[in-house]
Amino acid sequence: MNGRKRHVVVDVLGLILVVLVTPASIQDRDGAVPVLREAHREYPTLSKVWVDGAYTGQVIDELRTETGIDIEMVKRTDDVKGFVVVPKRWIGERTNGWFGKFRILSKEYERTIQSSRSDVLHAMSMIMLRRLTVPADQRKERR
Prior knowledge:
Elements: E1 4-10, E2 16-23, H1 28-42, E3 48-51, H2 58-67, E4 70-73, H3 89-99, H4 103-106, H5 113-133, H6 136-142
Parallel strand pairs: 3-4
Antiparallel strand pairs: 1-2
Helix pairs in contact: 1-2
């Protein structure tokens, strides 16, 4: 089975706005084009997106002018050794960390990309429902 990549656009709370699942052979910047177009279509008031260093190049510049979205690259500095929290970038990484708690998302079990996308949406629905139904202090005790 071939690998897959999940391209997600999240809000400042880390909740998914748009998800796109592609074959792993697709570069990050090439996956950004359809996912950001979809985000622009679904959320026309979206004005700023923070991305990591992989989202560079002419394709991103063209997308910036096409959609009017301010695409700001948040790069980590090369002179720092070890793990360092980079402001704004951790929001998307935290969402990916949440997905690690779901067994169905730990490996690629699905045959179709649509099923993989459904699994991601299902996991995010479970995360949001848990936040709505279980008080914060009880969620911490269940960890």
